[in-house]
């Protein structure tokens, strides 16, 4: 498995080794010991899967407050997404900065989104299925978000007219969002 660092400390892309032939391919999509070897061992407790039937669906920017914060390991089963991660750790040298990467069934890349980061996606094609592992159970009481189009973030989404839920469209901007992540503390 190849590890690709990003400008956001702790956020990494993973490229699996894909063994292909005339029948198709085989790959290990998750091997705990291999992630531990590269310094990213997590105790994942839940898998989540979503299907977006339209291109241009934006989901996010989501996170859970500590102590129920989640690290995510995200990958695309079918289709493609523009995956966005925002640093929301107060005091971080990259606070409020974001990265965007394409995850697809073709490139088979995965992204690790640690605690202290907000996460969102934009589907690039119809019928996109996303699968992600989390290391903490979903907690409605700790569920939070940031508005996908916060002008202070300036995220360059690859869509002019997104399909978005009422909940996500009503999220606060980062400056007003409830956030208990502090750079350098154990939960981030």
Automatic annotation (TrEMBL):
Top enzyme class: isomerase
Keyword terms, alphabetized: Isomerase
Upper taxonomic lineage: Bacteria, Bacillati, Bacillota, Bacilli, Bacillales
CDD domains membership: cupin_RmlC (cd00438)
Site (Participates in a stacking interaction with the thymidine ring of dTDP-4-oxo-6-deoxyglucose): 138
Native species: Paenibacillus ginsengarvi
PANTHER family, per the entry: DTDP-6-DEOXY-D-GLUCOSE-3,5 EPIMERASE (PTHR21047), THYMIDINE DIPHOSPHO-4-KETO-RHAMNOSE 3,5-EPIMERASE (PTHR21047:SF2)
Annotated Pfam families: dTDP_sugar_isom
Pathway: Carbohydrate biosynthesis; dTDP-L-rhamnose biosynthesis
Active-site residues, record numbering mapped to chain: 62 (proton acceptor), 132 (proton donor)
Top-level taxon in the UniProt lineage: Bacteria
Family note: Belongs to the dTDP-4-dehydrorhamnose 3,5-epimerase family.
Isomerase among keywords: yes
Annotated signal sequence range: none
Known function: Catalyzes the epimerization of the C3' and C5'positions of dTDP-6-deoxy-D-xylo-4-hexulose, forming dTDP-6-deoxy-L-lyxo-4-hexulose.
GO biological process, one term: dTDP-rhamnose biosynthetic process
Name of the protein this chain belongs to: dTDP-4-dehydrorhamnose 3,5-epimerase
Catalysis: reaction(s): dTDP-4-dehydro-6-deoxy-alpha-D-glucose = dTDP-4-dehydro-beta-L-rhamnose
């Amino acid at each position: 498995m190849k590890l690709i660092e990003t400008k956001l400390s702790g956020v990494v892309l993973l490229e699996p080794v894909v063994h292909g032939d005339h029948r198709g391919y085989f790959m290990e999509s998750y091997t705990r010991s291999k992630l531990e070897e590269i310094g990213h061992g997590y105790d994942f407790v839940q898998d989540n899967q979503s299907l977006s039937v339209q291109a241009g669906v934006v989901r996010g920017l989501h996170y859970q407050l500590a102590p129920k914060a989640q690290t995510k390991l995200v990958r695309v089963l079918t289709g493609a997404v523009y995956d966005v991660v925002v640093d929301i750790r107060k005091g971080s040298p990259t606070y409020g900065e974001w990265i965007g990467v394409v995850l697809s069934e073709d490139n088979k890349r995965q992204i690790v989104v640690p605690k202290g980061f907000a996460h969102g996606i934009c589907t690039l094609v119809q019928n996109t299925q996303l699968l992600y592992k989390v290391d903490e159970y979903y907690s409605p009481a700790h569920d939070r978000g940031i508005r996908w189009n916060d002008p202070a973030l300036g995220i360059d989404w690859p869509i002019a007219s997104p399909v978005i839920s009422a909940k996500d469209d009503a999220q606060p901007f980062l400056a007003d969002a409830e956030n208990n992540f502090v750079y350098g503390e154990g939960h981030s």
